[in-house]
Amino acid sequence: MSEIRQFEELGFHAWPAAQVTHFGSWAVQLTPYYPSKRGNSVNLLDPSDDTDLEQRVEACEALFIAQSKQPVFRLTPLAPPALADYLIARGYTSSGASSVMTCDLRDNTALKIRQPRLPLRLVHFREGQESGYSRISADFHNRPEPLVEGLAEVLRSIKPQKFIIAGFAGAEPAATLLCVSEDGYTGLLDLCIGEAFRRRGFAKALVLNEMGQALSRGDHKFWLQVESANAAARALYQGLGFSTVYDYIYYCR
Question: For residue 96, what pLDDT is reported?
Answer without folding.
Answer: 86
